[in-house]
Amino acid sequence: MMTLPFRLLVLASLCFASLPMVQGQAPAPASKPATTKKPDPVDQLAAKLTPTRTLVYKKLPDRELSLHIFEPEGHKAGDSRACFITIHGGGWTGGNPQRMYPFAAHYQQLGLVGISVHYRLHSAKTGVSVFDCVKDARSAVRYVKQHAQELGIDLQKIIVSGGSAGGHLAAATAMFDDVNEAGEDTAISTTPAALVLLFPVIDCSKEGYGQAKIGDSWKEISPVHQVRAGLPPTITFHGTGDTVTPFAGAKAFHEGMLKAGNKSELVVNEGGAHGYLMRDKALLDDSFTRSDAFLKELGLLAK
Known about the structure:
This protein has 303 residues and is of the alpha/beta class. Helix content is 32%, strand content 18%. Strands 1-2-4-3-5-6-7-8 form an 8-stranded mixed sheet, with helices on both faces. The longest helix is centred in the middle third of the chain and has 17 residues, at 130-146.
């Protein structure tokens, strides 16, 4: 025989079960297990690497920016080594210097000083523009040149590289001479001896990438629109299947460089999507092999 409290509990349960669902209100979705991005080969390599040291290259009112430096064994101040500076991507709004550690470390192993650059990220909330990102990239190269002797670097043998938005910033060090941090000594050129561009943001128009983030002045810092004679030798890696930074921009940049009398090499990956060589160890290694050969030809890497 049911006790009175149990009868009341059953009755209450039946009453609530019979209530209709509020119109337009869907049942709460079942929770899904959290997923994390699987590390690609570059992430896996980066996780095992630690820079020799970090060094502040720029002090701003709200932060300090640093160089993550990979020095070869036995390196010391007063040496005169070539230097490979690399800049991470992330649409100017994300990413970090650790992403490019494998590139800095690769050249460290070849006897160069490898450097991965920390720069401000574009954000409407903090007021950091893409022009500020450009200023930081140029400041980093200027700092290295200004302190070349104490860093043990040959200022005539500085290579700048980057992937995606970092490729744009690498190109910026050679191209956008009027975009500089106030107060810096602009007599110190930021132009490197060579550029190594990985699937770069190279066309900032609406047909490419970046116009919405940069604003009305996009053309001022769109590499394909600013090609001129006297730019450093450049090797560019790009996939024909890139829908983020379309291949057409890389092709136009390469052709424009040649037309202007500059040395340019375009390595095409048929069907390659944006960032293709970061996700495939064989393609990553191939990019190192090709970049090394290009730099050896220029006398920036020992044969």
